């Protein structure tokens, strides 16, 4: 006899009289039962369906009431195994299960993904009794769960492509910029007229701004990816911030501003932290102070807080800002208004990146200001002190070699402009320079002669720089050669490039574009690192 699913729901036989839950319901409850947007059913302890609502019958495609329905018979093979190994066991142990994923098989063979909740009664003697189930279609949920790994893989691929793109853009911009700033730096050390020196200064300033923008964009990508990191090493505070202070003093002098540094004697000493990132934060704050101040003074104060933390304050008498601007100042791409961007330039990323770095260091950064009355930025960093370093034998300096011999440097670089830039810088120091056009030629030149330092580019034809470094370090071990200081000199300036260089065996990484100062300091650092190794 054929009956509708709704009729089946109401005429399905009642549960045995020994079960405690009654099958009698009020008219309103019956309507809720039949119209529920999920399958509701009652089974005996052997999973034979005793009663069910219309949603369930429609779901499984059952229209014939001539035979009892076994729930196992509605499942796929995997579902039957799952029922026996988990569903029955969990019901026996806890009396309920929630959110089990199964596949029902309709009478026409179609699979229906479902989610299932179940609870099992106990009879008056405490024996397992009837089972009540609620189940609902889960095709959309299953599809979503299947798409999640694909979406994650797509996101990871997009992040990788973005990182590669940024690395390539950085490399392509830094390579020609190296020629501009390197030659400008050499030119600035020659005899120039006042007008020529002014023009060289403009080239250096513009190039420096372009390099800062590239670095900010790369740091922003790290912030977005959660990849901004710190490298904690012992450092001397006075030595590390000295460069920032002197650069600020020079820029202030150029604008006719008064510069003052107030540092309490007790702040100086050695600390454990990331000196590079500390200088980046202070450099950004002092650079902004000079940029936004037309007259008056720039004051940098360094003290110790009540808890022993380092406190840096950078105050200026510049344009200032109001409270509304102050609330958004550390957000990305934020400046006081569009006129500020047009007049003073900048991407609006510096303060956002500085805040991210200060947060990573466990510190705080705040600002207070009034329009037209200047600004004061305060950074508090809980950097632990470390014991003073024992004096070490000083390494050779550029232009100073042991004995009468000049310092011999091997430059492995494929770009002719970069070759010439390095040569122009180093010739002022009486360095004997040999140039190789790729990693293979550099390795050959290194094997045939002794060099005090190797300057190695990363991206080159025939053999890349990292491979050449690995071969050099391996040959030093197997042939018991003297360890040669190696500095990677590359436009690949992202953090993972630095890590790759160190892992390959380099002593230091010098990012392009280079100036006479950064190149010489990098070479001396390589000599020092090698002496300590």
Automatic annotation (TrEMBL):
Domain Histidine kinase: 168-385
Pfam families reported in the protein's UniProt record: HATPase_c (PF02518), HisKA (PF00512), Response_reg (PF00072)
InterPro entries: CheY-like_superfamily (IPR011006), HATPase_C_sf (IPR036890), HATPase_dom (IPR003594), His_kinase_dom (IPR005467), HisK_dim/P_dom (IPR003661), HisK_dim/P_sf (IPR036097), PAS-like_dom_sf (IPR035965), Sig_transdc_His_kin-like_C (IPR004358)
Catalytic activity: ATP + protein L-histidine = ADP + protein N-phospho-L-histidine
Entry keyword annotation includes Thylakoid: no
Modification 4-aspartylphosphate, positions: 457
Domain named Response regulatory: residues: 408-527
Name this polypeptide is given: Sensory/regulatory protein RpfC
Organism from which the protein derives: Phenylobacterium deserti
């Amino acid at each position: 006899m054929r009956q509708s699913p709704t009729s089946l729901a109401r005429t399905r036989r009642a549960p045995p009289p020994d079960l405690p839950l009654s099958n009698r319901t009020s008219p309103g409850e019956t309507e809720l039962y039949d119209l529920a947007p999920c399958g509701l059913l009652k089974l005996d302890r052997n999973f034979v369906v005793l009663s069910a609502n219309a949603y369930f019958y429609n779901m499984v495609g059952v229209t014939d009431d001539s035979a009892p329905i076994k729930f196992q018979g509605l499942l796929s093979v995997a579902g039957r195994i799952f029922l026996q190994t988990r569903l029955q066991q969990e019901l026996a142990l806890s009396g309920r299960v929630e959110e089990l994923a199964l596949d029902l098989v309709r009478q026409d063979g179609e699979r229906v993904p479902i989610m299932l909740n179940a609870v099992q009664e106990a009879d008056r003697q405490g024996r397992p009794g009837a089972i009540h189930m609620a189940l609902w279609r889960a095709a959309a949920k299953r599809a979503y769960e299947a798409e999640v790994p694909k979406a994650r893989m797509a996101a990871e691929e997009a992040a990788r492509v973005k990182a590669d793109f940024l690395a390539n853009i950085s490399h392509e911009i830094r390579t020609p910029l190296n020629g501009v700033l390197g030659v400008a730096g050499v030119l600035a050390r020659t005899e120039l007229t006042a007008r020529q020196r002014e023009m060289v200064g403009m080239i250096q300033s513009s190039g420096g701004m372009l390099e800062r923008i590239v670095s900010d964009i790369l740091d922003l990508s790290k912030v977005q990816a959660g990849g901004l990191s710190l490298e904690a090493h012992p450092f001397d505070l006075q030595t590390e911030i000295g460069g920032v202070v002197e650069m600020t003093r020079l820029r202030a002098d150029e604008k006719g501003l008064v510069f003052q540094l107030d540092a309490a004697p007790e702040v100086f000493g050695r600390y454990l932290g990331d000196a590079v990132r500390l200088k980046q934060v202070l450099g950004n704050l002092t650079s902004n102070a000079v940029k936004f101040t037309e007259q008056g003074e720039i004051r940098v104060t360094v003290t110790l807080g009540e808890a022993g933390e380092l406190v840096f304050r950078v105050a200026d008498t510049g344009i200032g800002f109001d409270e509304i601007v102050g609330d958004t100042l550390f957000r990305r791409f934020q400046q006081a208004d569009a006129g500020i961007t047009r007049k003073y330039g900048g991407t609006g990323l510096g303060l956002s990146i500085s805040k991210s770095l200060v947060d990573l260091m466990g510190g705080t950064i705040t600002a207070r200001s009034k329009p037209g009355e200047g600004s004061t930025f305060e950074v508090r960093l809980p950097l632990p002190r470390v014991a003073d370093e024992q004096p070490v034998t000083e390494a050779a300096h550029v232009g100073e070699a042991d004995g009468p011999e000049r310092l011999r440097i091997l430059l492995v670089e494929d770009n002719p402009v970069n070759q010439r830039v390095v040569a122009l810088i180093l010739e002022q120091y009486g360095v004997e320079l040999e140039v190789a056009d790729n990693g293979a030629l550099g390795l050959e030149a290194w094997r045939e002669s002794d060099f005090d330092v190797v300057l190695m580019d990363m991206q080159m034809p025939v053999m890349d720089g990292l491979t050449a470094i690995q071969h050099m370090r391996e040959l030093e071990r197997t042939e018991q050669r003297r360890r040669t200081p190696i500095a990677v000199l590359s436009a690949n300036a992202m953090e993972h490039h630095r890590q790759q260089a160190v892992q390959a065996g380099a002593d230091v990484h010098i990012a392009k574009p280079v100036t006479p100062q950064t190149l010489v300091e990098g070479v001396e650092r390589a000599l020092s690192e090698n002496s300590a190794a």
